[in-house]
Amino acid sequence: MQTGFDDFLTLEVNDLHVDVLTGIYSEETHLPQPLRISIRARLRIADHYEPETPLTASKNYMDLKHAASTALPEGVHFTLIEAVADHIIDTILLQDDKVSHVEVKIVKLALSERGEEIGITLGRGRR
């Protein structure tokens, strides 16, 4: 019986604080900017997950963290945070063909005056 709901698995890493060279204003272009990055990666789901199901049936969360931190090129200035998000998405899609879609949310912490979240969310599916 079709219920209208598809099964899915989404891995998440939320609220990583990463300093990235980004920005368009002169005061932003020479120092890393503090960003809060969250990632959601949708995976092709296994038929069922048993207690002994190996990690190869899913994905290591640390791969997502790596894509948003150590995989960002050192010394490269990203004019737009959209480019930072695209780089993270490309890294995750290249890591594992089980990943079908990645969504990256980036908040520019330096712009926040009263705790508001100013930034972008970019999502891309496998092409």
TrEMBL record:
Name under which the protein is recorded: Dihydroneopterin aldolase
Gene Ontology biological-process annotations: folic acid-containing compound metabolic process
What NCBIfam families does its record include?
folB_dom
- Annotated Dihydroneopterin aldolase/epimerase domain ranges read 11-124
Q: Name one GO molecular function term.
A: dihydroneopterin aldolase activity
Superkingdom, taxonomy of origin: Bacteria
Task: Give the lineage.
Answer: Bacteria, Pseudomonadati, Pseudomonadota, Alphaproteobacteria, Sphingomonadales
